[in-house]
Specification:
alpha+beta; single chain; disordered N terminus; four-stranded mixed sheet
C-alpha cells in the first residue's frame, strides 16, 4: 500500500516520470521482474510547492526463491546456486558424473560444487558434515540449508540442470527404497571398487597430512 501511494503521488507530481516509456518500468530487463531503482540509493521526486517525496524501490524483485549463498568452487560469483554438491575429488568414477553435471551447469548455473577431499574443506561451511560422514554417502545441501543424501541428492542435482526426468521415478517411495538400497551397496564398496584403501586408512592418512601441513594445529579442520 505504501508503494502504491508513493507511485500515485509521483504520477501527479510528474506524469512523464512514471509513464510506460519511463526506464523505471522497463519490463524488458532480465529475470522478467520490475526492476525499479537500486535498493542502495534514494531518488527524490519533486512535488508541487516545495520539498521532495523520497522513493525507494526494491531492486531485482522476482518470484524466485531467496538464496543466501553464492555459487562457485569457493570463489565469489555473481550467480546464486540452488543446490550444493559434496563430492569426492579423489574418486575417478565419481568425477565422471561430477564433470558431466559441471558441464551442464554452465548453462543453468544452479550447482555449487564442493570437493570434500580438498584440504580447504570446512564442515562448518557445509551444515556440519565432516569428511568421514561426507565420504560415506553422497550428500547435497539445498539453498535453504536442508541436507539430502543418497538417491534424493542425485535427483535434486539432476533437476537443477534440467535432467530431473532421469530420477523422477525415485520420487515414489517403493522405488526410492529400492534405489537407496542399491546405492547403499555401491557406497559401501566404492573405495574397494575404485582401487583405494578402506575408509579408516584414508581418514588416518588425511589426519597425518593435516598435522604435517599445519603449523598451528588449532587452525586445522578435518
Amino acid at each position: 500500500m505504501a508503494l502504491r501511494g508513493a507511485i500515485s503521488i509521483a504520477r501527479r507530481a510528474n506524469p512523464s516520470l512514471l509513464s510506460s516509456k519511463s526506464p523505471l518500468f522497463n519490463t524488458h530487463l532480465p529475470n522478467h521482474g520490475l526492476h525499479l531503482l537500486s535498493s542502495s540509493t534514494h531518488h527524490h521526486i519533486p512535488k508541487s510547492g516545495f520539498g521532495y517525496y523520497s522513493m525507494r524501490a526494491v531492486h531485482g524483485a522476482s518470484v524466485e526463491p531467496v538464496v543466501n549463498e553464492k555459487r562457485g568452487d569457493g570463489k565469489e560469483g555473481s550467480d546464486y546456486w540452488k543446490v550444493k554438491m559434496l563430492y569426492d575429488g579423489d574418486c575417478p568414477l565419481c568425477m565422471r558424473e561430477v564433470n558431466m553435471l559441471r558441464e551442464r551447469d554452465k548453462q543453468y548455473k544452479a550447482i555449487k560444487f564442493v570437493d570434500i577431499s580438498s584440504e580447504e574443506y570446512s564442515p562448518e561451511d557445509n551444515q556440519g558434515l565432516d569428511y568421514k560422514t561426507a565420504m560415506g554417502r553422497i550428500h547435497a545441501i539445498l539453498s535453504d540449508g536442508t541436507v539430502v543424501r543418497d538417491v534424493e541428492a542425485f535427483r535434486r542435482l539432476y533437476e537443477a540442470v534440467g535432467l530431473g526426468w532421469l530420477y523422477a521415478i525415485t520420487k515414489y517411495k517403493p522405488i526410492a527404497t529400492i534405489a537407496d538400497a542399491v546405492y547403499g551397496v555401491w557406497a559401501k564398496y566404492r573405495l574397494q571398487i575404485t582401487g583405494r584403501p578402506p575408509l579408516e586408512e584414508v581418514l588416518e592418512l588425511r589426519r597425518k597430512n593435516k598435522e604435517d601441513a599445519c603449523n598451528d594445529k588449532n587452525a586445522c579442520k578435518m
